[in-house]
Write a structure and sequence with these properties.
18% strand, alpha+beta, 3 domains, 45% helix, five-stranded antiparallel β-sheet, elongated
Length: 546
């Protein structure tokens, strides 16, 4: 959760920074254009890019093969922006402490949101009570007008059926021209639906109350909102001096602070507003070129993430009738394994037949997509569960290559378990399994059989290097990538002492690093860099009929 939130916040912050640059470029233009830009920056907090990418994932594209299309470099970068930060791997013995922080943060977040909402609800009830006690008056305004004995400034209350709320006696305290200008200002708020957009940003402030940027954007929205109404009042023909005197008159007579649920006349930086009104500077209308740039930027903010989602449509949705398939295949549920013995036939093939016995969907996906560790596989918890297991037996045509077997298995999982996936690149610290300086101490496999393994012991009679990397990743809870370059299957016998071994049977052997080098002639080296991550968008626990 923390990772997803961090990702969304930095995306929204970057979007707001771009919005700020656009408003600077349009500082000589109409305030309403800058207002809508800031409103878009606010709304971005409610619309993660990942949601748009996900929407694009749901648009199927026909492909001539089972291989997903290669994304252009620019689209790939956008895809990376839409993905969450990758947290550092967490050791299982530290899980209780690691999981406590997200829970504490979630509790604080919820309580903060509730507190902000309750505060605004109390103020809204206060204004609603004033409105209910007010009396209708007719001053020729375009919206329903009420007069109140409360000492508040003129303002518009309500979202869908707004009313203009005026304090009693304001007509006697302002000149007719001043009152007309004030009413024109408030009518502009109602026509622009400013209370609705204000409510949207209030929701953003309630949800992201801890982020100072959302409150700063709120101040910009109020500032540009009031300037936009000022410009409209002056455009309608009100004299700048009369209008400015009317605003100052309201400030002198009604000192009550403006309420957030009312669009009033004295909001924003009053001094700058009065200066702007009195100078009545010439507002440049946006030319066609600037309108086109602004419209293009708005469209691209939506189109690019959706396009990335479409181009990276999950494999399970992008298959075609020409995709390679097994001649015969069965996928059946299997009972959970007993004890801690893990027995996996990784790539066991005899006369074109491949079999997996009592494996999780996670194991199948790792084999099919060349992934070795849990850190490279993201999806529902059950795909890695001990409780949901499968037996898979599939026969391929003679002399089928390993790469084609992988594609066949991908298609089989998509067909029988409705698996849909997409790929991402993430920075993941990992260990690289490489050949040692004196060369490997491995013998090519001569017999077919199972590869029994448990933590601290592997005895494989027919194991590829990526299978070894996968088992070591699982047992040591680290990401270990095969970079040996060794092809084929090998006899692998490896005994080591886990770092946290407490059972007598697990002690006495060397550490994993030493054992790998001494017993296999290989070596584990620390690395950090982008790795392929497979994200499971959909999968089902019950296979379809064979």
């Amino acid at each position: 959760m923390i990772s997803l939130l961090e990702n969304h916040l930095w995306q929204s912050t970057l979007f707001a920074a771009i919005a700020g640059l656009l408003t600077l470029a349009l500082r000589q233009n109409q305030a309403r254009a800058r207002y809508w830009i800031w409103l878009a920056a606010s709304a971005k907090f409610l619309l993660p890019f990942a949601l748009l990418v996900s929407a694009g994932n749901r648009v199927p594209l026909p492909h001539s093969s089972a291989v997903a299309p290669r994304l252009p470099v620019a689209a790939t970068e956008i895809g990376q922006i839409a993905q969450p930060f990758t947290p550092s791997p967490i050791r299982y013995d530290a899980v209780p402490a690691a999981t406590a922080m997200p829970v504490v943060f979630a509790i604080l977040w919820i309580f903060g949101t509730i507190a902000v909402l309750l505060f605004w609800f109390a103020r809204w009830r206060r204004v609603r009570a004033i409105v209910r006690a007010a009396s209708p008056i007719d001053i020729g305004a375009q919206i329903e007008t009420l007069s109140s004995t409360a000492p508040i400034e003129p303002g518009v209350f309500g979202i869908f059926r707004p009313v203009l709320l005026l304090p009693d006696g304001i007509a006697e305290r302002l000149t007719p021209a001043q009152l007309r200008a004030i009413v024109a200002h408030e009518t502009c708020h109602a026509r622009r639906r400013d209370n609705l957009t204000s409510a949207i940003h209030m929701l953003v402030e309630a949800v992201f109350w801890f982020h100072p940027l959302v409150w700063w954007i709120g101040a910009r929205l109020v500032d540009e909102r009031e300037r936009a109404c000022d410009e409209e009042v002056l455009r309608q023909g009100s004299e700048p001096e009369t209008y400015a005197e009317g605003i100052l008159g309201v400030c002198r007579l009604y000192l009550e602070s403006p309420l957030v649920c009312v669009s009033g006349v004295t909001g924003a930086d009053l001094k700058k507003r009065i200066e702007g009104i009195m100078t009545n500077r010439i507002i440049r209308r946006m030319g066609f070129g600037r309108k086109l740039i602004l419209a293009g930027a708005s469209a691209m903010a939506v189109i690019l993430p959706v396009s990335v989602g479409i181009l990276s449509v999950p494999h399970g949705q992008a298959q075609s009738p020409a995709a390679p398939t097994f001649d015969v295949a069965t996928v059946k549920p299997s009972p959970p394994p007993q004890g801690d013995l893990i027995q996996i036939n990784l790539g066991t093939m005899l006369n074109g037949t491949i079999s997996f016995n009592n494996v999780s969907l996670s194991d199948c996906l790792k084999y099919a997509y060349g992934i070795v560790s849990d850190a490279q596989l993201v999806g529902p918890d059950w795909i890695k569960s001990k409780e949901v297991r499968f037996d898979i037996v599939a026969k391929a045509p003679p002399n089928t290559s390993r790469d084609r077997i992988d594609l066949m298995l991908q298609n089989l999982l998509a067909e029988r378990l409705k698996v849909a996936v997409h790929h991402e690149q993430r920075e993941i610290p990992h260990l690289a399994l490489v050949v040692g300086k004196n060369g490997p101490k491995l013998r090519a496999a001569t017999t077919l059989g199972p590869n029994p393994a448990r933590r601290g012991h592997i005895a494989g009679s027919h194991m590829p290097m990526r299978g070894l990397a996968m088992l070591l990743s699982r047992f040591e809870r680290q990401t270990i990538i095969d970079e040996t370059g060794l092809k084929g299957d090998f006899e692998v016998k490896l005994d080591w002492t886990p770092d946290d071994a407490i059972h007598p049977d697990d002690q006495g052997a060397p550490s994993l690093f030493t054992a790998v080098e001494e017993q296999l002639g290989l070596k584990l080296e620390s690395r950090k860099g982008p790795l392929d991550v497979l994200v499971v968008d959909h999968a089902e626990k019950i296979p379809t009929d064979n």
